[in-house]
Amino acid sequence: MAAQTQTQIQVQTNCNEPEYLDDLLCSGEELEQKQESCLVSPVRCLTGESRVESAWAHWAKLGRPKFIVAPMVDNSELPFRMLCRKYGAQAAYTPMLHSRIFTETEKYRKEEFTTCKEDRPLFVQFCANDPDILLEAARKVERYCDYVDINLGCPQRIARRGNYGAFLMDKLPLVKHLVEKLALNLQVPVSCKIRIFPNLEDTIRYARMLEEAGCSLLAVHGRTRDEKDGKKFRADWKAIRAVKNAVKIPVLANGNIRHMEDVHDCLEETGVEGVLSAETLLENPALFAGFRTPEWVAESEVGIIDGRLDQADLLVEYLKLCENYPVPWRMIRSHVHKLLGDWFSLHPYIREDLNKQSRLTFEFLYELVDRLRDTGTRIPLYLNDTQTGVAANSSTS
Ligand SMILES: Cc1cc2nc3c(=O)[nH]c(=O)nc-3n(C[C@H](O)[C@H](O)[C@H](O)COP(=O)(O)O)c2cc1C
């Protein structure tokens, strides 16, 4: 496998300049990233079994990651991915990137896609409805990632209007074309993230079609396009298991992951290679190191101990990462709300002060954490005492 030196990604902005708007990047540093690429052999000449073998070889080369940060618009950006990796995540998706805007706008590319040498394995996710545009976008990132992923699961109105995400479930020939285009022309494998159909047979046909078209890894969110509210609808692990049994490529499960017990149950019940978590990680980026929020600790549970880590600690770690890896302030703002939501419920006036700031600074945010601590508030994250080893490893890595 030939090692290749990468082109540089540069990010230049300055959050201390007052004229900058809140959604510009948060630091003035120029980020230079040089990394060895880890390109695999193109799958273009492979068919059938050898393509499946190649999919598994790639997965094995990445270390068979089991604990994975799901794609999240404005939320699975570089510093957040790095925080989750420190606490046990073994791979991560970028937020969904819009393939057409990515090809057309340099500012969008620089602000919305940043990475670094340690940010691997990495899935870069695009939404698309034009195979040529998707390929053009994918070519710009393939050296920096381990999969180019197609978003086939977004159920939001914006996806309906834009004709992408889960609305492509009505246009399967186009989906096939998108996957084939990447599989035949990229150096890295293509993965897809899907939702299930209401009918299991349709879901299985869909998964097999994707595999046939050249998809090397399939992440299955076990909810239908209409089951938008993750809190209201349980993900269907049985459907995920059926997909796993119907295809030969690696499969990941998504949905219903609140703590490590769910992770283990999901792996066992579905038989998949790994799990994705989204909403829970936003509140608790240390999930994969065994930490859980008080919400998921039953009073009667034995062996649960104070993990000596809390969401304010994690926010401070996140902010430090943001100082190193600049991202738009709107992403930082979103993480502050998600991480400190329970703390703000106890002290709503501190949340109001945050909301009043049209422009944020790191100084303001560190002070905000100090103010919360000065109230005497402490909401610990808990560990199952059999998992303390995992946590210790993650916090020293
Ligand atoms: C804030 C947020 C942003 C999301 N953005 C994306 C996205 O960009 N691409 C995608 O495929 N799914 C996206 N999702 C969906 C998640 O990846 C995941 O499929 C869904 O939340 C179910 O997982 P969970 O039960 O662990 O939350 C997003 C979810 C959240 C909460």
How would you describe the overall organization of this protein?
- The protein is α/β, with parallel strands linked by helices and 397 residues long.
- The chain folds into two domains: 48-284, TIM Barrel (Alpha-Beta Barrel); 292-396, no CATH class.
- Helices cover 43% and strands 14% of the residues.
- The chain is built from 16 helices and twelve strands.
- The protein has helices spanning 48-61, 78-86, 99-104, 106-112, 131-141, 157-162, 172-185, 200-213, 237-246, 260-270, 279-283, 311-324, 329-346, 348-356, 362-374, 388-396, and strands at residues 67-69, 91-93, 97-98, 122-127, 147-152, 190-195, 215-221, 251-254, 274-277, 291-292, 304-310, 380-384.
- The strands form two sheets. The protein has an eight-stranded parallel beta barrel with strand order 1-2-4-5-6-7-8-9, surrounded by seven helices.
- α5 (131-141) runs parallel beside α7 and α12 (311-324) packs antiparallel against α15.
- The chain binds flavin mononucleotide.
- Residues 70-73, 75, 95-96, 125, 151, 153-154, 193, 221, 230, 254-255, 257, 277-280 line the site of flavin mononucleotide.
